[in-house]
Structures are given as C-alpha cells and as structure tokens.
Amino acid sequence: MVADNVIFNMHITHDGVSVSYDQELLHDIWHAFQRGYKRRIGRFKNNFMAGMFPANTITISIVIAAISLLRLSIKLLLSYKGWMYEQPGKPISTPTKLWLGLLNLMSKSGPMMHSYQGALPHLPLPSLNDTIERHLLSMRPILNDEEFEELEHLSEVTDWWEEFVYMRQRSPIMIN
C-alpha cells in the first residue's frame, strides 16, 4: 500500500535525480507552524500581563513620572551650595536646615553605592592649561630649579600636538 500524502519524493534514475514535492501539503505545514508560534507568543504576552506584571500602562506611567520627579528633585537638592558658605561655630541657617531635612527625607531608603551618581550635577572640565599650571605649582616645592625647568619644558602642549594628535586622533596613544 502506497501513501498518498507524501510531502517529498526523490528518485535516482540513470537520467539523474528526480525530486517531487506536494506544494499544498508544505503550505499547510507552514501555516500550522505559524499558528503554533502565534499561540506561544500570545500565551507569553497574556502570562506576562496577567501574572508577572498586572499593572496597566497608566500605572506604569505614574510610577515612571514619580521616579523621574524624585531624581530631578534630588539633583536640584544636590546642586545647592549654600552650606559651603556657613560660618563655622555659628548656628546653621534656616535654608541649610531645610536643605538638610529634605535631602535626608529623600535619601532615607538606604541607597547603594553610586546610586545617586546620575543625579549629581554635571561639573565642567577645567581647561588643559589651568590643569598644567596647577600641576607645576604643586610640583615646585619638591623639585630643584633644574628639575623644575625640565618639567616645565616637558609640560608644554605644542600646537602640533593639540591640532594633529589630541584633537584628530580617537584611538589610544601608545606609550612605551
């Protein structure tokens, strides 16, 4: 007895290889495969929305807005610099007390290390010449005149270095 529903037939004859397939049956198999995966994806979405995360999109939006507002307020609180200008030995001013209370209230959750790193205000980078000047000023007391002159000569940033190497080169510079 020969089966009629054979998808793929291959015969090797003296003329060559003869291949025949049932296109309609392959089409039905492909649709069954698609239907199965669509059901799996639908079940996954349903299980996710109903089981692991039962909140709707409005609740998610409110939570994200609250977190963003909290982070923004912490960022604004951390940018306050009035506490640096308080006179030592005198009572703390009311704005600084209010700032300390709000900061304490906002950070009560026991943050992990570096968790407020993104909330800190961005600091500007100092210019290269100012950094070199401060470095030379800090090295002056520990070097004699000859060593200091050599260090001063080595610390000069030439126009060539700035233009062609520092500004245009994006790969790491090989040292030694």
Offer a quick outline of the entry.
With 176 residues, this protein is mostly helical. It has 6 helices and 2 strands.
Keywords summarizing the entry:
176 residues, mainly alpha, 6 helices, 2 strands
Helix/strand layout:
Blueprint: E1 8-13, E2 16-21, H1 23-52, H2 57-78, H3 94-106, H4 128-139, H5 145-154, H6 159-166
Structure description:
Keywords: Acyltransferase, Membrane, Transferase, Transmembrane, Transmembrane helix. Pathway: Lipid metabolism; fatty acid beta-oxidation. GO terms for molecular function: carnitine O-palmitoyltransferase activity. Residues 8-45 form the Carnitine O-palmitoyltransferase N-terminal domain. InterPro entries: Carn_acyl_trans (IPR000542), Carn_acyl_trans_N (IPR042572), CPT_N (IPR032476). With 176 residues, the protein is mainly alpha-helical. Among the domains are: 8-51; 128-168, no CATH class. It has helices at 23-52, 57-78, 94-106, 128-139, 145-154, 159-166, and strands spanning 8-13, 16-21. A two-stranded antiparallel sheet has the order 1-2. Strand 1 (8-13) and strand 2 form a beta hairpin. The longest helix is centred in the first third of the chain and has 30 residues, at 23-52. The radius of gyration is 36 Å and the shape is flat. It starts with 7 loop residues before the first strand and ends in a 10-residue tail after the last helix. The model has no long low-confidence stretch (mean pLDDT 81).
